[in-house]
Design a protein that fits this description.
The protein is an alpha+beta fold. It has two domains: 1-30; 39-177, Lipoprotein like domain (Double Stranded RNA Binding Domain, 2-Layer Sandwich). It contains four helices and four strands, in the order ααβαβββα. It has a four-stranded mixed β-sheet. Strand 2 and strand 3 form a beta hairpin. The longest helix has 33 residues, at 139-171. It is flat and about 60 Å long. Residues 1-24 form the signal peptide. Keywords: Lipoprotein, Signal. InterPro entries: LPS_assembly_LptE. This is LPS-assembly lipoprotein.
Length: 184
């Protein structure tokens, strides 16, 4: 019994070490890790100006995106990029009782995002996120559940968009060297 556990531990340790050395050898580097060029990604992220997004959920998404983009570098960095986002919301009923009343709804938010640099679109993506909530007899409870679901969905979208922009900026560091006078 003891030798069996020891063999398993040794095998797991060997697999872990082999995986770690394989990942280290392929040039893997965490996206937000400090590198020789300092905090270039944080500075590039802070250089993104998030445009106005329509409706209340658009305002919430814009605020969430701005928090993520300015994290670490603050708002003192000159804006070199402009992110425009268009968003749509769809509510879908899903669970039904015998009397055909709904017991569950889902909120799906879909976005089309474009990143511009020097007046040219350099990146464009579509993202979507969905969250569900239960429908009860209490109208106030349903309204609060809907608001909570919408907020969770907006946080998911802001994570998706900011991570995708970060990957793009990390892979294209030469875009960050635009002339100082260029507008977003």
């Amino acid at each position: 019994m003891w030798s069996s556990k020891r063999t398993i531990r040794t095998a797991l340790l060997g697999c872990t070490l082999a995986t770690a050395s394989a990942v280290a050898g392929c040039g893997f580097q965490p996206m937000y890790a400090r590198s020789n060029n300092g905090d270039a990604l944080k500075t590039a992220m802070a250089a993104v100006d998030v445009g106005i997004i329509e409706d209340r959920q658009g305002q919430m998404l814009r605020n969430a995106l701005e928090r993520r983009f300015e994290q670490g570098a603050g708002n003192t960095v000159q804006k070199r990029y402009r992110l425009t986002v268009k968003m749509t919301e769809v509510k879908t009923e899903s669970g039904f009782r015998k009397d055909a009343t709904s017991t569950r709804e889902s909120v799906t938010l879909a976005t089309t995002s474009k990143l511009e640099s020097g007046g040219k679109v350099v990146w464009s993506r579509q993202h979507s996120a969905m969250t569900g909530y239960n429908i009860t007899a209490d109208h106030f409870t349903v309204e609060m559940a809907y608001r909570n679901a919408r907020e969770r969905t907006i946080e998911q979208l802001s994570d998706q968009i900011s991570e995708a922009v970060a990957v793009f900026l990390k892979q294209n560091p030469s875009l960050g060297t635009a002339p100082a006078g260029s507008a977003p």
